[in-house]
Amino acid sequence: MTSATYIGRFAPSPTGPLHFGSLVCALASFLDARHQAGRWLVRIEDIDPPREISGATTTILRQLSDHGLTWDGELLYQSTRTEAYREAIAALQSAHLAYSCDCPRQRINSLGGIYDGYCRQRTVIENPAIRLQVPSESKAREPEATIKFDDLIMGHYIQNLCSEIGDFIIQRRDQLFSYQLAVVVDDRFQNISHIIRGADLIDSTPRQIYLQECLESLSGKHPAPTGSPLTSSPLTYGHLPMAINAEGQKLSKQNHAAALVAGKESQNLWLALQWLGQQPPDQLKNESISRILDWAISNWSLNAIPKQLAMPAPSHY
Ligand code: GLU
User: Fold this and answer.
1) If we measure between CA atoms, which residue out of 192, 203, 183, 198 comes closest to residue 272?
2) Which ligand 1 atom is nearest residue 10's CA?
3) What pLDDT shows up at residue 141?
4) Residues 6+ positions from 69 with CB-CB distance below 8 Å
5) 11 CA distance to ligand 1 centroid (A)?
6) Which of 104, 121, 172, 261 has its CA 20 to 30 A from that of 294?
7) What stretches of 190-264 show up as alpha helix (H) in DSSP?
């Protein structure tokens, strides 16, 4: 039986093979979906060609299959979605929720990284980036600048977009679409209901909730964002601890995180379950991946996941 309402997803960027940290995210989102008889989708976030590694998508998909993490339906490639992103930006601009900006990075750095809205009132700007306007300074003490959500793992999270983030980029000056825009357009397109991902993205979530509300208001499904309290989201979020190396850095290609080794799938799954606080029995370690996943789906507990933003990855995986 499939739950009609639960649709989860894993959304890797093809910047390198899966490592322990990305396996944990894939596994946790898969188990949470399957435990609730939901669907689990895979979306390839290939919207930043300069950061992509050729062959990474094939490797990631093979690694997922080798670990028994089989997705439902068709894969979605963000590189095929540029028309939808363009339309979303055009609609946001027509509604005066987004505007062109050509401020150089040095200027934004000199502001401490939080954009001051300098280009909001300017009109003709060549080769612009596009920014989404967050509720303005004068409203900063009112509820609409504050986004709150109850994270399934980390608990209550609150962020003031105006004072902590500022108007943010949805399309870069090199015309590439931002992660924030693409992820929101596609989560809506795919009717995603649950997002289980790494805590490195928790501070992006309020921006994404706000952007969803802007797009919902344009489609007439929600009142305009200014003037309505932004306190809830149609999506449910759970942010997992980030796997870090001995130096305290998030595992990534840049700091040479080891890729998962083919042939050690059962051990990888067992280690990931243990890391996620699921207390897999020792004798499961040498079982087949399908026996391990069956156990993990039945025994899955979000409450058992440590409520920490970061935890060291196992030294050997
Ligand atoms: N593509 C993003 C990444 O690989 C994850 C996006 C998301 O889960 O929202 O870090």
Assistant:
1) 198
2) 8
3) 53
4) 10, 26, 27, 30, 40
5) 5
6) 261
7) 205-218
